[in-house]
Amino acid sequence: MSTSQETPLEHSLDSLLRPKTWDDYIGQEKVKKNLDVLISAAKQRGQMPEHILLYGPAGLGKTTLAYIIGSILGVPIQTASGPMIERVGDIASLASTLENGGVLFIDEIHRLKKNIEESLYPIMESGTVSVMLGKGPAAQSVTFDLPPIVIIAATTQAGKLSTPLRTRFSGGTLKLAPYSDGEIAQILKRSAAVLETSPPDDEAVREIAKRSRNTPRIANYLLKRVRDYAQVHEKDISADIVKQALTERDIDAYGLTNEDRSVLETINTVFNGGPVGIKALATTLSEDPETIEEVYEPFLIQVGFLDRTPRGRSITKKGVSYLRSVR
Ligand code: ADE
Fold this sequence. Notes:
Elements: H1 13-17, H2 29-44, E1 52-55, H3 62-73, E2 77-81, H4 88-97, E3 102-107, H5 114-126, E4 128-133, E5 140-145, E6 149-155, H6 163-166, E7 172-175, H7 181-195, H8 202-210, H9 216-232, H10 239-248, H11 258-270, H12 278-285, H13 289-302, E8 306-309, E9 312-315, H14 317-326
Parallel strand pairs: 1-6, 1-7, 2-3, 3-6
Antiparallel strand pairs: 4-5, 8-9
Helix pairs in contact: 4-5, 7-8, 7-9, 8-10, 9-10
The structure holds adenine.
Adenine (ADE) binds next to helix 7.
């Protein structure tokens, strides 16, 4: 009989693929070095490190870093996401679940409501939280001590953080950079070994890496889809199988999807190449502006297909030739 350990659920594959130590975590050398000093020093003193802000595009491993920090400190981690925190008391209750202290990871911190952001200040400064008891003239503010926590926050848009919030990350703001093709190839080889796939050859790894937008989360996602395809077709993972599997999913040689192409097509045809404001573009595409800004735009700008100017978004010459080549 197989056990749940032998047959992990598909959705838990991602946590299986998450590196658990600095040695397993490939790339971001400078960030790793700085975090290691901050955390080792605090640990030697028997204290929690100061609060940390991680900043960079989605999928580069910010959550993974928070888990590694928790595991080095030997403390539990509680995770939350900015838009999910609705009431002022939510942060205090999250922090209190870490009875003997731990890491409170807040993803997408730039999407925190203003009043909740303000309730974070005393938590970050003095580890205390104030709540109002009672109503009307008899209401009283009572201050509680929270367990020792380190807040590790992540954002894709550090510019959207208010100065009072940003400066409270006294452990520092660390910026994650896109990975090189070589680093992505190393991550893919490690992931293939963790998944126990037939080892993809170097050319196959390069073909996946090329379509990964230099982002580990995407690289691992593509690897899982290629693994499925190769398994169903009873083939090993070769460069040809990668191309077939990903072309069937409408992922092209740049790693662009139908959604990315629609953004470019819309700017090109509906708005005559731009510039077009984010709201008009979002309405035309039936997307919300944040998804365009955070999911589609960063990579389209990185590959040089899109320009972001104060007057709006425009398609570049390179973007126009790309569209011609795929039509
Ligand atoms: N998975 C996600 N990020 C990773 C990294 N930096 N190294 C190894 N595996 C990863």
